[in-house]
Each structure stands twice: as C-alpha cells, then as structure tokens.
TrEMBL record:
<dbReference type="Pfam" id="PF01219">
    <property type="entry name" value="DAGK_prokar"/>
</dbReference>
<feature type="transmembrane region" description="Helical">
    <location>
        <begin position="99"/>
        <end position="124"/>
    </location>
</feature>
<protein>
    <submittedName>
        <fullName>Diacylglycerol kinase</fullName>
    </submittedName>
</protein>
<dbReference type="InterPro" id="IPR000829">
    <property type="entry name" value="DAGK"/>
</dbReference>
<keyword id="KW-0547">Nucleotide-binding</keyword>
<feature type="transmembrane region" description="Helical">
    <location>
        <begin position="34"/>
        <end position="51"/>
    </location>
</feature>
<keyword id="KW-0812">Transmembrane</keyword>
<keyword id="KW-0472">Membrane</keyword>
<keyword id="KW-0808">Transferase</keyword>
<keyword id="KW-0594">Phospholipid biosynthesis</keyword>
<keyword id="KW-0067">ATP-binding</keyword>
<keyword id="KW-0443">Lipid metabolism</keyword>
<keyword id="KW-1133">Transmembrane helix</keyword>
<dbReference type="InterPro" id="IPR036945">
    <property type="entry name" value="DAGK_sf"/>
</dbReference>
<dbReference type="InterPro" id="IPR033717">
    <property type="entry name" value="UDPK"/>
</dbReference>
<keyword id="KW-1208">Phospholipid metabolism</keyword>
<keyword id="KW-1003">Cell membrane</keyword>
C-alpha cells in the first residue's frame, strides 16, 4: 500500500515538473529578456568556477532574477487575458512586475561585481 502511494506521488511530482519545464521553455522561447538573463547567469557561473569564486551568491542571485522574470511572464499573460484592452490598473500590474525584475537584476549585478570583481582584477593585474 505504502509503496503504491509513494509511486503515485513520484508520478505526480514528475507531472508537475513537466508543467514547470513547459513554462521554462515557453519563457525562453518568447521572452528575449529571459534568454539574456539565462546566458548572463551561465556566463557569471562559468566565471565563478574559472576564478574559484564562491558559487552560492552568484547562483542565488541568478535564481532570484530568473524566478522573478518567470513570474513577470506569468503576470503579463494573466493581465493580457484579463484586460486585452488598455487599462491603468493593467499598466500598474505590468510596470510593478517589471520593476521587481529590475530591482533583482541590479542586486544581482552588485553581487556579481563584488564577488567576481576582486579575483578578475587580480587575474588581469
Ligand atoms: N493592457 C494594458 N493596459 C495598459 N498599459 C499596458 C497594457 N499592456 C501593456 N501596457 C504597458 O506597456 C508596457 C509593456 O507591456 P508589454 O506587455 O509589451 O510588456 P513587454 O514590454 O513585452 O515586457 P517584457 O519585455 O517583459 O515581455 C507595460 O509595462 C505597460 O506600461
């Protein structure tokens, strides 16, 4: 009984992971900003490995930016569904969501500069 229940949970987990993956693929295909952020993250993580800099802060900063960009995409889709025409509240929702991504991106830039800057400078000196 127990193993049957656990097999069912795993199947559910895989099903949910499949939907999440579909959301990631959709955002990568449709959102140019998401593509840029993915490759900026890959570059930053690659640099951190190369420079033997701490990976955790870079990884967390990348995860934060990408997660907020995904939420921004979800919110844009919802706003377009709920308000196909122009509406001041639709503008507020989209602008605030975009603002969240901007704040996280600036934070990630700060993390990148403070974590990768010193070892990069030491390398070129
Ligand atoms: N239904 C709407 N009503 C009022 N203003 C809107 C509406 N849709 C979009 N806007 C305004 O246009 C801006 C751009 O919206 P759009 O949906 O094109 O997002 P986007 O620029 O494609 O964002 P992203 O690059 O993240 O996909 C919004 O931030 C908002 O100011």
């Amino acid at each position: 009984m127990r193993s049957g229940g656990s097999a069912l949970s795993w199947r559910r987990w895989w099903r949910s992971a499949g939907f999440a993956w579909a959301g990631l693929v959709y955002s990568y295909r449709v959102q140019a900003n998401f593509r840029i952020e993915v490759w900026a993250g890959v570059l930053a993580l690659g640099l951190a490995v190369f420079l033997r800099a701490p990976l955790a802060p870079i990884g967390l900063a990348c995860a934060l930016v990408l997660s907020l960009e995904l939420l921004n995409t979800a919110l844009e889709a919802l706003v377009d569904l709920a308000s196909p025409g122009l509406h001041p509240l639709a503008r507020v929702a989209k602008d605030a969501a975009a603002g969240a991504v901007l704040v996280a991106s600036l934070g990630a830039l700060l993390v990148g500069v403070t974590v990768l800057g010193p070892p990069l400078l030491a390398l070129v000196r």
